[in-house]
Each structure stands twice: as C-alpha cells, then as structure tokens.
Amino acid sequence: MNIKELPPEADGKPNKLIRSFVSTEDNNFYSHWGLDLRGILRAFMVNILAGRIKEGASTITQQVARLRFLNTERSFLRKAREAWLALLLEVVFDKDTLMEIYLNEIPLGHGTIGVGAAARFYFRKDVKDLTWGESALLASLTTRPTEFSPLVNPNSSSAKVRVVFKKFVENGILDVKTAEKEYESFSEYYITLNRSPNDSAFGDRLNRFPYFTEYVRKNLTRYIPKSTLYSGGLKIYSTLNIQHQTQAEKALYAGLKAQTALSNQRTFTKIDAFDDAYGEIYDLLSMLNDIPDFKFKISRSARTFNRAWQEDLRDELSALNLLSGTESLGETIDWNYKSQQTEDFLLPVEGALISMRPDTGYITAVVGGSGFRSDNQQIRAFQAYRQPGSAFKPIIYAAAMEYFNEHPDPKKNVTAASLFSDSPLQYVLEDGDEWNPSNYTGEYSGFIKLREALELSRNSVAVRVLEHTGISNLMPYLEKILQIENRPIPKNYSISLGTFEVSPYELARAYAVIASGGKQVFPLSVLYVEDGSGKVIKDFREEANKQEKKQILSPAVCFILTSMMEDVIKKGTGTGAASYGLSRPAAGKTGTTNNFRDAWFAGYSSELVSVVWLGYDTGTLSMGKGMSGGVVAAPIWGRFMSNALSREKSKPFHFGETGVV
C-alpha cells in the first residue's frame, strides 16, 4: 500500500487510519526524532521494579526497526539496538515513509501482514474506505492480536476498541459525541459477525497453483524455520512454469472428471455374475417369502445413497407423510435422485501429473489430485505409492542393457533386436504356491524381438529378460536408476511387471535419467529464497551444482530405449498419447495393474519428462474393465505435452556419439 492511497480527511487532517495508529501507538510520532524519552523513562522504572521487561514504550519508528531488522526477544540489549536503529531510520527516511513501512508490515492477526491485508480480511474493504470504528479495530490489534481478535474474542475486542475511542477523545482527534456515535455505529459489526475463529488470511489469498505451492511449502520447512517462512517477508523463486502448470491442471482435471463419471457407471463384476445367474430366482424368492427387492446392477453411488435412504431416512419421511398429508415424499426423493444425480455422490477417481526438465531437474508442474480442497490436500504426485505395472519395464530393460554394456558376456546380451520367447510361464514359489504371469490379452506370439515386446507390453518377455540377466546382477542398476535409498527393491521376478510401488515423482525421476542421456538427475522445485531486504538466504541451485551427476546409463542404452519407446507411441499400446496432436518426437510407456486399479503413462520429449497416474485412493477398487494406461492415462499425457510445449521449439532426441547404427 502506498500512503498516498490514504487521502486526507475533509478537514485537511491526516487520514483516519493513520491518526488511529498514531493515537494508539505513538501520539508524538510527528514531533519526536525516533524515541519518546518520557515514555522510555516511565517504562524503564516499571521494568526495573519488575526485574524484567514488563512494559514497552516503543515508538512507531522503533517498531519499524524491530519489524525490519530485529527479532521479538524481550531483553534490554534488544531494546538498546532498537533505539539506535530508530535514530538512524529517522535520519534516512521522512515520517511518511516510516509510516508507510509500518502500516505495510505490522502483523494484525490471523496471518494478515499490513493494514491492506487486514482491511480485506476483517471488513472486505479497501483501506481508503474504512470507518473510524474499523480503523480503531485495526489499531487495537498491534499487541496481542489473537487475544483481541473480533473472531476469537468479540467481547474483548469490543472493549479494546472502546479504549481506542477513549484515546481519540483524550488526544483531541474526536469529540465525545462523535466518538460515541462512531463507536455505537461500529458495534453492529460484532452483531453481524459470523465467521470461524480459525479463519485466516492464508485462505483468502489467491493461490492459482495450490498443489505446487503446498509442496514447496512443505519442502522448505526442512530448511527454513516456520516462523521465518510464514512471516519473514520472504521471496521464494520456484521452478514452476505457468504454461506447464496450467496445461497440467486442465489435462488432468478433464481426464479425472470423465473417468470418474465412466468408472462410477460400471458395476462390480461379481454382482453382474450373481444377477445373471440368480437374479430371476431371487425375484421369485422375494415374492414368496416377502424378501425386500434388491437391485443388483447399480452403481456404487446409487448403492451408497439407497443404503442411507433405507436405513436413515425412510422412517422419518413416513412421519412427515402423516403430518403433511402427503403420501409421495419418498417417491419424490427417489425420482429426484435418479433424474438429477450429481457428482457429489460419485466416488472420485484420483490422479497425479508431474513434469520436470531432464537436463536441469527443474520441476515445472505438479498436480496432486482432482482438486485442492480442505478435504483433498494429498499431493499424490509425491505421496501416492502405487504399482507402476508395465511402465516399469523400460527400467528393467535399461538395467539389463547396461549390465551387458559393462559385462559383455554374449550369454547375457540384451538389445532391441534380442529374441525372447513370448509364451506362458509357471513358477513354483518358496511357499509352494504357483505364480503364472500372463499377458494382458492372454495371447502369445512365440519368439519375438524385445522392441516389439515393449510395443505390445508383453509380460512374459519382461519376466524372461529379468531371468535371463539375473536378479542379483540387475539390482545395483535398478537402485541407481530409481535413486531410492529408504525402501529396498524386492528380489523376485514380479518386479519385472511393476509390482514395486513408486510415486509418480520417483518414476519421473527414473525416466529423466534415460531422457538426459543416462546422467543422474537431481530434481528441484525451488531455485533460491530471499529475505525481505533482497538477500539470498538459501540457494538450492548452488547445492545442486555441487552434486556430481554420475553417468548411470550409457548414451547408447538411452538411445536404444528411447527408440523403442518412440515405437510404443507410434504403433504400440501408447498410441493414445498422440490423440491430441502431439507432433514432436516423444517416447513413453503405458502401465496398468491387476484388475485395472492403476493406469499410468510415463514418457518424455527432449525438453520435458512427465508422468500421469490415475486410480482410486482405495487401491483395491477397479476403474472398470479395459481402463488401461493406454486408454486412460496416455491421452491425458499427450494432451498435456502437446499444449505445455506448444510455445517451445521441437527438438529431436540427441544422445551424442552412441556407436549405435
């Protein structure tokens, strides 16, 4: 706020808001030179007698010094520093500038900093439109703002405002009659006030990209004290790309809305089977034995509603029928529900999308779910650990190729042209159970090249690659690619089919290794942080630059895998990624878990890596038959990549001299 926005009153005197703070905090502000000696002497005697800091006599200038340069410690040394800085400030700045700094930086409760934010929070007004009562309330909040908050303690607040009005009279700002009139008029504010004591200015602030900012906030609390982070006037420079974030939200939200509607129309297959086999018999038994009717083919939302309706509402509405003389309230509600069913009843399909630059690791977009709300703040891009399904196969193949690259044993050779048997498998586990991994389609092709096996997402081939190279041989490479230190990767063949749970962020980081030509990637969400004076207090770029980017995979392996995953999009399970006009070179892989519980698409262009995941938060629920990664996630990924990169020049993949022809 510029102090010029507070015009003088009609009588030519300073604005009422300025006079309210001067009267309450520092009545001699315009005449002293930074310190109020009489006030200091009075407070000094009180504090000496008490043996501690009990009373303050800080002028507005001293408060500016404290806000800008000091902490809130109550000690004699801090008060001495405050006084010295106040004298210097009076030399450097004029009174209007000091008042402007003070009014802009004074905390006034509920997360508000400055009178502009406070006026909007408490009164939904601009500062220039405040009344005497509203100005008095803001001036009453300079000390113990929680105790005197009108939202928390309206009685205490009203009493404190009355004290401020008494000061108005004592200091000659208002006469008694005008003060009483203004106070009585303002008292209606407390009568009409209907807000939660837990309201805060944080909820009022426009947050265009809440998932990204919430992740940044949580991340920064590991490095910066919360008190400084929330009220230190910091400037945080992030890696967010507005174009990417906007398109990520559009693509994912549209996809989740459509998938929620589609998945909630589907019924459980067991109920379908029961209805088909026993439905007519059940109807007959119902008629003969007076068993209530039951509708088997019904959506989850309808089943939830009907259960609540039968258990909780039917008796009450029957009583209303008698009282109102209406016999059709129940039928009306039944009809209204069936004809006007809203999304509020739908169990939402959730999801996540994350993107990062493969060369720098800069995270450019984060969407953590179907919408950031008080009841939906999980950032699933980082916090949802799910099985990636076939999206894990490129990581298995990368590890197998790199192992052969470093251990050139002809018996362990794995290339895009390597032939593997695409045929049924059977394993007997240690506990005696059998494990029979099968292809998604149930079809087999005999001997098939690895490139084609990835295009068609053949599960049998992925298992055979792992068996061919050896689990123990691959483990060190898998650990390097994934860069996961706190969770061990199971040593069993099922990991080749993506049973090891990862977050979208972890999968994106692994794919970024391939996209970067095999170099280690250190993702960043914040570049640097400045304090209120513009000094850099934390530079994450410097720390990232000090870290050695190890060569995890050879450029040749990355070149081969990228070529294979380009074919996945061109003619394999990922053709849905091109449905939104994606025209630049791109590589990726679909992922689907058992019973269609999770749908993934992970991929990259030379400019950007991104991962999309969809599924229910309850991991046991299916999105419905056929809801695979290629059908559900790939179109969202393609839409995002096409639109997010629309302003960036298309570049071919380049991995340097690979030696691959």
From TrEMBL:
GO terms for biological process: cell wall organization; peptidoglycan biosynthetic process; proteolysis; regulation of cell shape. GO terms for molecular function: carboxypeptidase activity; penicillin binding; peptidoglycan glycosyltransferase activity. It is found in: Membrane. It catalyses: [GlcNAc-(1->4)-Mur2Ac(oyl-L-Ala-gamma-D-Glu-L-Lys-D-Ala-D-Ala)](n)-di-trans,octa-cis-undecaprenyl diphosphate + beta-D-GlcNAc-(1->4)-Mur2Ac(oyl-L-Ala-gamma-D-Glu-L-Lys-D-Ala-D-Ala)-di-trans,octa-cis-undecaprenyl diphosphate = [GlcNAc-(1->4)-Mur2Ac(oyl-L-Ala-gamma-D-Glu-L-Lys-D-Ala-D-Ala)](n+1)-di-trans,octa-cis-undecaprenyl diphosphate + di-trans,octa-cis-undecaprenyl diphosphate + H(+). The keyword Aminoacyl-tRNA synthetase does not apply. This is peptidoglycan glycosyltransferase. It comes from the Bacteria.
